[in-house]
Design goal:
Layout lengths: L2 H5 L20 H4 L1 H12 L4 E5 L8 E7 L2 E7 L5 E5 L14 E3 L4 E2 L6 E2 L5 E3 L18 E7 L2 E5 L7 H4 L1 H10 L20 E2 L1 H4 L2 E3 L3 H8 L5 H4 L1 H6 L6 E5 L2 E6 L20 E6 L3 E5 L5 E11 L2 E10 L6 H25 L22 H14 L1
Antiparallel strand pairs: 1-10, 2-3, 2-5, 3-4, 4-9, 6-7, 7-8, 9-10, 11-18, 12-18, 13-14, 14-15, 15-16, 16-17, 17-18
Helix pairs in contact: 7-10
Length: about 400
Amino acid sequence: MSSKSKSLNSYSKPLTEIPEESFTLPSYMYTDMEIYELEKEKIFYKTWQYVGHKSLFSEPGDYQTLRICDQHIFVIMGDDYKLRAFYNVCQHRAHELLTEGFGNIERAIICPYHAWAFEKSGELRGAPRTENRPSFNKKDFSLKPVKLEMFLDCAFVNLDPNANPLSEIAGDLEDDIKSRVPFFDRLGDPQAGDGTGNATILRRDDLGLTAINAGWKVVVDNYIECYHCEHAHKDFCDMISMDTYKHDTFGLWARQLGEDIKDDNTAYKLKPNDPFKKSAFWFLWPNTTINILPGAEVLNFAIVRPTAIDKCLFEGHSVSASGTFSKGRQDYTANVLMPEDTALCESVQRGLKSKGYDQGPLIVDPSRSGRGEHALHHFHRLVQHAMT
């Protein structure tokens, strides 16, 4: 039986709507190349993918690229101050137009191969020596657009032109975040900090790309449960009490809340007057995370971006409402928390290839506390539904 057929049939152990009776996705779902190719078509080319906060696009020509598996996209601010998204490919001979990352295009988008020039709005401005080609019409060679939506003041793209708007399928997530983040409307405020807006955002290049030798689902699995936290993240749990930690699931998203915070802890010290002494972690299907750690008016947006069946990047942006960032928090995240999680995920990916493992039981508290795996069950059911 091919893996494609297996993905459409029941697993050897049940994964049903009842978390207490369910098991994890089977290991072949994490290791089979045919499954990965199916995921591209059934999940990543049909779902909303995070690109960046609106403060990344303040001037005409500001752009940010994103790779969605095999597809390269860019989002750019037009001369009319309208944000647009396009496939990052020239309509002549398929050369990529913009190098991966971010920047600013002052005039036209110029293909590095044959110097075809495109407007920021996507139209072909000019192409050398095409005057000798009969019936050549520049209007026939505009860049191919990609569906774009501003959600949570961030640009999201979807390769499916018929996709339902995020505001319809996850509008309650936006309401929840805005209700719990009192500084949300001030994020990326250009008047904060030095008054230029330069101090309000840490780009993914500042934060560093975390390359993980594990597939995207392994990383989301790890992110979406804190059953492992007390054993694997002792500093985290010294700062955030697991006794009152909450984890709730909703349609296409989930939320973790830790509101019992200790100032004098082993993760990083908090001062009595530090702002926002709460933690919150939101997950948006299939691979976007939105995060707050205690002690600063900073919201982190990050995406788990697959690069191979057993590799991914965890990358994103941190946006400040005050123009300042907590060095202690940044150091803890970069030097302790992320390395801990990376090691866990990479070990799991290796273990999923073992002939001695297939599916494991989901551990779920009747109270659906933050110590259980009911949100992992929720995620696996979303994968199961998308793939079938």
